């Protein structure tokens, strides 16, 4: 991973975060209290397909039954405390014609937004994905047209915007236009 110290935006409570402290590791049950911080935060869930968690059972279910079914899933950690999660899932489960493609997803506790964490993590995951899951040729990401932060993260990490999928999926009870972006194993790594 390219590791730098990046200053946060003016006005942010903490001025800097040392990106060298960010690590990715498997999520486990001892992360439950940390996971509940972002999964119960409306700001975080706004552009995510999952509904706000209402109990620790939801968190346990994620750690034990959902995260384990992704192709690849890691906790984003600072000083070994989980501050978010990043995953790769099958783009079209059961469709062999798409088994060289995976969908990227990421989420970060709002306290850590705007400090370069997601960009740093996504760049790292692109490298790791094409290395550890060497059969993959394409990573794709679907981002709500109103989720400007996530679009910028992908752009900075080398993803190419491919288009807008109109009313592609229902999130929070509403049909949403989604931007699809991708990076290929042959693209220059940032
Ligand atoms: C989207 C998210 C992952 C961004 O994480 P982050 O660590 O704050 O992103 P970064 O600090 O790496 O920022 C990357 C770029 O996006 C910009 N950005 C971040 N949040 C932004 C926002 N809300 N509006 C506009 N730009 C934003 C940053 O300024 C930076 O661009 P710059 O370097 O040109 O200034 C984080 O806000 C999040 O977890 N949101 C909730 C979950 C979510 O939306 N996940 C993605 C679903 S597709």
UniProtKB/TrEMBL annotation:
Protein name: Acetyltransferase (GNAT) domain protein
Listed GO MF terms: protein-N-terminal-alanine acetyltransferase activity
InterPro entries, A to Z: Acyl_CoA_acyltransferase, GNAT_dom
Cited Gene3D superfamilies: 3.40.630.30
Domain of life: Eukaryota
Domain N-acetyltransferase: 22-177
Keywords: Acyltransferase, Transferase
EC number(s) reported in the record: 2.3.1.267
């Amino acid at each position: 991973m390219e590791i730098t110290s990046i200053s946060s935006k003016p006005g942010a409570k903490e001025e800097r975060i040392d990106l060298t402290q960010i690590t990715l590791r498997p999520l486990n049950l001892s992360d439950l209290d940390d996971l509940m911080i972002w999964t119960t935060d409306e700001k975080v869930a706004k552009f995510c397909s999952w509904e706000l968690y209402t109990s620790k059972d939801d968190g346990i279910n994620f750690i034990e039954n959902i995260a384990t079914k992704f192709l690849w899933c890691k906790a984003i950690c600072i000083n070994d405390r989980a501050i978010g999660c990043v995953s790769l899932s099958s783009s079209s489960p059961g469709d062999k014609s798409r088994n060289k493609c995976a969908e990227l997803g990421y989420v970060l506790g709002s306290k850590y937004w705007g400090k370069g964490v997601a960009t740093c993590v996504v760049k790292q995951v692109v490298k790791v994905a094409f290395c550890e899951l060497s059969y993959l040729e394409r990573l794709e990401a679907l981002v709500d047209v109103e989720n400007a932060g996530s679009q910028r993260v992908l752009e900075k990490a080398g993803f190419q915007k491919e288009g807008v999928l109109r009313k592609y999926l229902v999130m929070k009870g509403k049909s949403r236009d989604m931007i699809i972006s991708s990076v290929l194993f042959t693209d220059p790594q940032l």
